[in-house]
From TrEMBL:
This is Oxidoreductase. GO terms for molecular function: nucleotide binding. Residues 165-296 form the GFO/IDH/MocA-like oxidoreductase domain. Gene3D superfamilies: Dihydrodipicolinate Reductase, domain 2 (3.30.360.10), NAD(P)-binding Rossmann-like Domain (3.40.50.720). Residues 33-156 form the Gfo/Idh/MocA-like oxidoreductase N-terminal domain. It comes from Filimonas zeae.
Length: 399
């Protein structure tokens, strides 16, 4: 998507529709935003912990999950003994005092719950990947265009990390030179499977294993890195090539446990590789951005710039990383991008969500950027499971 499209969409916030819902007419003087959490699995519980650490910004008033034992576990995190509990998200959205909702459910439920939350007038923090398929992503874009004062933020946290912001600034300043290659991995040595107290709950608990509910490793892990590339270069992939299989865990799963995706961005002269396996944890998380002047190697909370040899002797500072102390990482000389590791990205993202609710501005990770990444993920999976190269269609209109 071109930058001018985002600017045009942002302009809706200043001159768009004035909705009558009183939820939009709040200020920081109104106190913490009253919020409900829909989905109390691993990610939902993590969100609850983060929200509990921000009592000046958010106050949880309700939680929802279809599994009773998860609701009971979530209730133990209620320090006020005041949260209402629901097994039906629609009843949570009917609760009058709720101003915003977090959706941290299985991927296939993102869209129906998001549309209900949007229609109810609530602000929405929607976990990644934004939607299960392309049609749903395009529909959410249309819906939110009609609600310019309502906030929908997507949980692609790198857009809020000081580290990844710094990397974006370095790339835009030309510190890496011409960038033509990006290599990403997110590996583990595990079945990626959760224990089930009852065999009848297999597909409910281990939804990531089944294509009816999940986008697999590409949606659950690699989407973060895909989104960052889209953001930094203000673009989207045009061509998608992929391969993989169920090569490690022959346990009835349908989503692949070993994947490799290559995306081509012809407008940027860029090729990016994204891979994940459940069969080896040595590399773990890798994110390498390679340019003619140097390479940046990123973890989730820290990063190092490796200048090309021709630049290593320049004054002890390299391309905007001023005052950095030379370190050794992977036995090679490098310069730390930030002096200290960053915090978990959720805290940065939630603080911005609160601020955007006050100002009605478009979040950095919004319905338009979320759709662009959701489409990228869907096309990557289409190429992966069909074994046929796929391309971005001009019919995917995000404006």
């Amino acid at each position: 998507m071109e930058r001018r499209h985002f600017l045009r969409n942002s302009g809706l916030l200043a001159g768009g529709l004035l909705l009558g819902n009183s939820l939009f007419a709040r200020s920081s003087a109104a106190g913490p935003v009253k919020i409900g959490v829909i989905g109390c699995g691993d990610r939902g519980t993590g969100m609850i912990h983060s929200l509990n650490q921000m009592p000046d910004l958010f106050r949880i008033t309700a939680v929802c999950d279809v599994l009773d034992f998860r609701l009971l576990a979530a209730q133990k995190l209620d320090k006020t003994n005041s949260w209402k509990t629901y097994t039906d998200y629609r009843k949570l959205l009917d609760q009058a005092d709720i101003e915003a909702a977090v959706i941290a459910t299985p991927l296939h439920m993102h869209y129906p719950i998001a549309t209900a939350a949007i229609d109810s007038g609530r602000h929405l923090y929607l976990e990644k990947t934004m939607t299960y398929n392309i049609e749903q992503a395009l529909d959410l874009v249309k819906r939110m265009q009609q609600r310019p004062k309502q906030v929908l933020q997507v949980g692609h946290q790198y857009r809020y990390s000081p580290l990844y912001y710094k990397v974006k600034e370095m790339i835009e300043a030309g510190d890496l030179g011409t960038i033509t290659q990006i290599d990403c991995r997110w590996d583990r040595n595990t079945t990626w499977r959760r224990p089930t107290p009852n065999p009848s709950l297999e597909r409910t608990i281990n939804w990531r294993m089944y294509r009816e509910y999940s986008g697999g490793l590409v949606a659950e892990l690699l989407s973060h890195q895909i989104d960052f590339v889209n953001w930094v270069f203000d673009t989207h992939p045009q061509d998608f090539y992929a391969t993989g299989g169920i090569d490690i865990h022959k346990d009835g799963r349908e989503t692949y446990d070993n994947v490799q995706v290559m995306m081509r961005y012809p407008d940027k002269g860029l090729t990016a590789n994204f891979g994940a396996t459940c069969g080896n944890a040595r590399d773990g998380y890798l994110f390498k951005i390679k340019g003619t002047k140097g390479m940046i190697s990123l973890l989730t909370d820290q990063g190092v710039l490796y200048p090309e040899k021709s630049l290593q002797k320049e004054k002890g500072t390299v391309d905007g990383v001023t005052g950095a102390t030379r370190i050794t990482w992977n036995k090679d000389g490098g310069l730390p991008i930030l002096p200290e590791p960053t915090k978990d990205g959720t805290s940065y993202a939630l603080k911005d969500f609160y601020n955007k609710i006050q100002t009605h501005e478009l979040p950095d990770s919004n319905v338009f950027t979320g759709a662009r990444t959701a489409i990228s993920v869907h096309l990557a999976n289409q190429a992966l499971y069909s074994k046929i190269a796929c391309s971005w269609s001009d019919t995917y209109v995000l404006t």
